[in-house]
Structures are given as structure tokens and as C-alpha cells.
Amino acid sequence: MKISDLDYYALTGNSLLHKSSVEIKMIWAVALIALIVISNDYLFLLTIYLVMFLYVIFSNLSTKTILLLTFYPLLFVLLMVISTTNITYEFVLLLTSKVLIASTTMILLFATTPYIRLFSKLSLFMPGFLVSAMFLSYRSIFILWTTMENIQQAIYLRGGISFKNVNRSLQVIGNSLGLLLIKSIESSEKMYEGLYLRGHSNKIKYLENKNE
Amino acid sequence: MSHIHIPDGVLPVWLWLSGFIIVIIYLIGMGYYLKNKPFNKKLPLVGVFVALMIIAMSIEIVPIAYHIKLDALTGIILGPLFSVLCIFIVNLILALVGHGGITIVGLNTIVLSIEAIIAYIIFKLLYKKLNKVFLSAFLATIISLFIATWGNIGVVYLSQNNIEHLMQSHESHKESFVKFSLLEHNKTNHEEHTTEPKPNGKDNSHFDMKKFILFLMLLGPVGWLLESLITAFILKYVSKIKPDILEN
């Protein structure tokens, strides 16, 4: 998962989808997901995926990153394919097209919409505390990611993780995540105090809503 | 292994919709619980736990491509009420970045929440009796993972008919093409070259539930063992450095 990369594309990109309104993109995403649920015609679904694939190729988005992310859920199709006897290629194509349309839709939505704009629209039909928790979660990912990178560097400098000694490696992973957990809790306490002092309630208010 | 990795459009609508309805009922209850509280201290904690889970998921144990989830750890530290919220947000963010279907967010939340709640209950019981963090955490995690994997199997079992329907839907599409070919061949009197459609109108392909369970039960224990050991090491470390986290 490269959430930081997607966030960067969402903020700096200049494609057609970046310029489209968030509402239109959300309706488009819901419509495509509904289509995946309803349709079992693999040729139709593959055609739709082909259009999306061509868009990713010819838009000024980072093609390699986006495609790698969209292909990742294909690993899960493998489990279903293994568990099916006398599988036909049509069924594999149907599953593959469903997976690829779903992942490409969500990634295109997320990679072309800054998270503040996306969360502000979600707050229209989601409870305030949920959007607030999502917003805090999203911010925390970037804060903790930097901490994790520093911990990883420290582990590397002290010999790293070796699979020759599994017990030691698991202990190192456990200790580093334990340290990250303690730092996370400390960070959440600071975050709570900061927000509480600023009079934060369980709902995040967006300036963007007033400007629109 | 307890995370449902099924693409959108495979599960029956009633099943994933039920998952969402249960989660919505939980969210309404949670909203009611938080209504009279100005700003709950646990909301930022939920936020950092979501981040922690997402970061932990990015650490892949290379030889078996397993990624840790920390649902049990979240359940043990956050408790049942807030761990469900945390798990729901993790699933929602993962679906937004294409790492799992958006329609199965509800079901995944239920299965993983069961894991977190069971881990919380077992850990509390064992820690009270044994007073050994590592052992209590290890047993709580491995038992909860085992039960949650069966939750995953249960979901697949309930959607078995739908999976088979999917296999046959494109087959009937193919059959109509075969029938069309038959008519064409009849016209030119070349019946001997035509293919007979299958007697019951169904193909031989079917989803093998036993194979699926066998596959999960063969790979699962490796993942359960790794996740349980890592969770136990994390909690042992936390109990040494900041024991008040466990006591609270």
C-alpha cells in the first residue's frame, strides 16, 4: 500500500478526473461498483476495464504505481481459482474483470481527490464521530509512518531481520511494533489535548463547505 | 486468513447487505453513546490504532507473503466497543485504496471484530489467572484467529450458491452460442460436426468447499502462529516499558 503516493497524486495531479467534482466522481464510483454486483457478462466488464486501463495509461497519473496497486487484489482471486474444480477461462475472466474494475475505481477516486475534500463529502451522510475518527486516522498514518521508518533504520543498523533466526526476528518485529504502539498512544494523548484545547467536539468542520 | 479476500460482485447481495446493516446498527449505537460526551479521549486513540494497523499490514513476512493485522492486539488494548470502530475504519480505508472489496467492508468488520472481542475476553481471563503477558496474549490471539478463520469459512459457505451461479451464468451465455451454432450447422446438413449441449444445462465446474477449507487450514496455522507470536512480543514489550497501558 502506498497511501502517501496516492495522497501526493491527489494533491498535485492535473488530470481530467482531478478537475471533476467530488460528487460526480463518487456517483461514478458507486455506479461502477453496482455494475460489478449486477453484471455477470465478462465481455462487457472486460470492455469497461479496458476503457479504465486506457485512461490510466494516457492520463498524467503515475501509471506504474496505479496499475501495481490495482493488480494487487488479483492475488485473492487465486484462492478462489484454486478452490474450483474444472474451472473455465470465462469464470476466471469474470472474476478478474470484477476485481480490476473495483480496485481501479477506488484507486482512481482516491488518487484524484484530496482526502479533505473526500472526507468533507463523506461527512454529509456519515456520522460526525466516524468522519472525525477517519480524519484523525488518516493524519496519524503519515505521522506514524515517519516514526516507523526511523525504527526500521535503527533495526537495520543493528543487524536487521534475518530469517535464519526466526525467534529473534519475530522478537525484533514485536519490539519495534511495541515501541510504535507506545509512541502511537503518546501521540494520541497529545492529539487529544491539542484538539480539546481548541474546543474540538466529535465533529470536524470543513471550511470548504462554506465556500461552495 | 481471517480477513475475507473475496472480490466485489461474488457474494450474494443479502449477505453483504446484512453485514452493512449490522455495522450501521453498531454505528448508530456508538453515535448515541458519544452524543452526550463533548470529545471522547478514545477517538484519537482509535485514529492512531487505525494507522498502526495499516502500517503493520505493510510489513510483509516475505517467505509466505503473510501480513500481520493486529486485530487481536487492538481488541486487547482498545476493548470491544472501540476496537469495532477501529476495524471498520481500517477496512474502509483499505477498500478506498483498492485493497479489498467495498461491498465486503461490513462482513470483514464483523469477522475481524469477532476476532478482536474474543481476543479481549480470553486475554482478560488468562491474564487474571496466569499473570503471564506473553502466554496470555499468545493463546488469546491464536484462539481468536482460529475462530475468525471459521467465520471467514462461514461467509464463503453462505455464498457458495452464488459462486456456483456465477460459474453457470457465463456458461448459459456460452450455451446460447452453441445452440446458435447448432442451428447454423443443421441448415448446411453437417450435424455430425456439431457439439451436443450438456444434458442438464450445467457445466462440471463447481466451487469445492472442502478444498477451500483444506487450503485455509494448511496455510492458516503458519499465519496464526506468526501473528500470535508477534502480538505476544508486542504486549510483553509494552508490559515492560509502560505497564499502565495493559492495566487500563
Please describe what this structure looks like.
The complex is a heterodimer of chains A (212) and B (248). With 212 residues, chain A is mainly α. Chain A has helices at residues 3-12, 16-19, 22-38, 42-58, 63-71, 74-82, 89-111, 115-122, 128-157, 166-197, 207-211; one strand at residues 84-85. Chain A is globular, with a radius of gyration of 21 Å. The model of chain B is unreliable at 176-185 and 187-202 (pLDDT under 50). The radius of gyration of chain B is 24 Å and the shape is globular. The two termini of chain B are 30 Å apart. Chain B has helices spanning 13-35, 42-57, 71-96, 105-130, 133-158, 160-187, 209-241, 244-247; strands at 60-61, 66-67, 206-207. The longest helix of chain B has 33 residues, at 209-241. Chain B has eight helices and three strands; from the N terminus they run H-H-E-E-H-H-H-H-E-H-H. In chain B, strands 1-2 form a two-stranded antiparallel sheet. Chain B is mostly helical and 248 residues long. Classes of the chains: A mainly alpha (212), B mainly alpha (248). At the A-B interface, helix 3, helix 6, strand 1, helix 7 and helix 9 of A face helix 1, helix 2, helix 3, helix 6 and strand 3 of B. Strand 1 of chain A pairs antiparallel with strand 3 of chain B, so a sheet runs across the interface.
Keywords:
heterodimer; A: 212 residues; mainly alpha; globular; B: mainly alpha; 3 strands; 73% helix
Short recap of the structure:
Chain A has 212 residues and is mostly helical. Chain A has helices at 3-12, 16-19, 22-38, 42-58, 63-71, 74-82, 89-111, 115-122, 128-157, 166-197, 207-211; one strand at 84-85. Chain A is built from eleven helices and one strand, in the order ααααααβααααα.
